[in-house]
Each structure stands twice: as structure tokens, then as C-alpha cells.
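Consider the following assembly input.
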Amino acid sequence: MKTPDWKTCTEEELWRYVAFHLKKAGVDSVLVGGAVVAIYSQGAYRSGDLDMIVARSELPKVDAVLATLGFQKVRGRHFEHPDCAHIIIEFPAGPISIGDDYKIQPKEVEVEGSKIKIFTPTDCVRDRLASYIHFDARECLDQAVLVATRQPVDLAKVKEWCRQEGGMDAYKKFEEKLRASGTPGRK
Amino acid sequence: MLDEIFGNRTVERIYLHLFHYGEIHARGLANDYKASVDPFVQQLNRLENAGLLVSKTVGRTRLYRFNPKSPFIKPIKKIIEIVYESMPLSQREELFQTRRRPRRKGKPVL
């Protein structure tokens, strides 16, 4: 696979490159967090990091693969590439979950014959709303709207999850903003 | 994962304090237990890396709380609640005697 331009690559280009090489080494990863917003918003939002979840038992393999790609482990589970100052990679602890929901089915994307995984647009919206509900992070509400205006999102599933998470006020705000944007994405 | 969730006596103290106060910092824990701050810092970091706690800096203090986005937190809190509620009130009053809820500046403590 072609090496990305380290100085200018997007979150999506870097994710495809790293996830592809992890998969080649037998490591399944799932992209979560803000980078998913960057990808689904086609760059309207830039996260500056990739959060990738892998099984805990695979972390030694992750270290080895990232080292061969030129990354340096800086602290804990963070990696930086000396030529890529604008995006860092982190491997947060699993499991893959959105609030209390840990039965997540990520979307598979084919890259040169390998399948790599990422949150679906609906799960990306739920993940952003989780941060808004639990951390009062208003920017995450905006990110949820950004994704929902550009991608097909299962709004009924988002609403039901918000209800279970105790976040119906957050859902109402999300719905208002989505309506105001004039281009609600629906599945 | 279970080793990361449970751990040791220091973790138990952290859990109980978080359950009682909602948020906590390493120095506060060390003061309340009249113990060294280092083991608390170490375990708080470990629990944060495991995704069980989240933290933020307020002034020069790192404040920790349960990660509400973790699917483990509700069941963990249920277990802590059993331990907490089974403690005699006198023991709870002794352990959690430091007042940390909001108090108007200058209001005297009687």
C-alpha cells in the first residue's frame, strides 16, 4: 500500500494506511472517536488524532507494526510519526462501546483486499452525543449534527439510545440543530 | 480486564471515595487516608488507562471521576454501592469527613 504523504495526509488516509498494516499482521482494529467525524464530514472537522480500539492481547503486535511504519511510542498508548506532526494515534482501552451499549457492529471498509473497521455513521453520532450527554461537551453536539447532515443516520436508533442513556434533552437539542441545518440525513 | 477493574486495597479506597464524592484528586485521597500520594497517583493513572476513570485539570489539580461512557461503570458502581452501604455510618463519617461539596467562600464551618 502506498505510504501517505506524512506532512499533509488526512485522518482518513492515515487510518487506512495504519489499519491496513495492522490487519495484514492479523490485528483487527476499529476506528472510533473524533477521527470518524473527520472522515464522515469529508474533512469539515479535523480531529488531529486517531483513536483505534484493538484487543488488549494484541497491543504488543500493535507496538511492533507501528514501529515498522516509523511511529514512536511517546507515552502510554500514544504513537507519533516524526514526519507527521498533525495527527497522533492512540489505542484507548476497549471494549468498543457507546455508553452502556457494547454490542457494536462496526462498518467494514475494503482496502486493497483487506477489510478494516470503523464506527457506522449512526454509531459515530451516538458516540458524539455520549460525550455531550456525559461531559457536557457542546462541540460534540455540533460534530454529531455535522455527521448527520452528511451521512445516512438511523435517527430512531439514536433517539432510543439517548432515551436509555438518560439523554433525551440532548436528543431534542440534536434534532433541533439538525432541523435548523435543513439537510437532515436519514436512513 | 478484571485485573484492571479490581486490583488492590488502594483501588478499593479510590472507588469508595469516588462513589462518595463523585470526583477526587490524588492529594485529597492521600490526606484522607493519611498515606503517601504516590500509590494513589499510580492507581488513578492505571484506572484512567483502562478507560474506567476520566480526568481533567482544574488549576494545578488533576481531578478524576468515573468514566460515564464506560459500559463497566454501572455494574462497578453497583458493587461499590453494596460495600458502601454495608459500612457502618460511623465508619463512613470517619472516612469521608472532609467536606467537598460547594460552600460559599467565607462561610464559617461550625
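Helices of chain B lie at 2-5, 9-21, 26-33, 37-49, 73-85, 89-95. Ask yourself how this observation constrains the way the partners meet.
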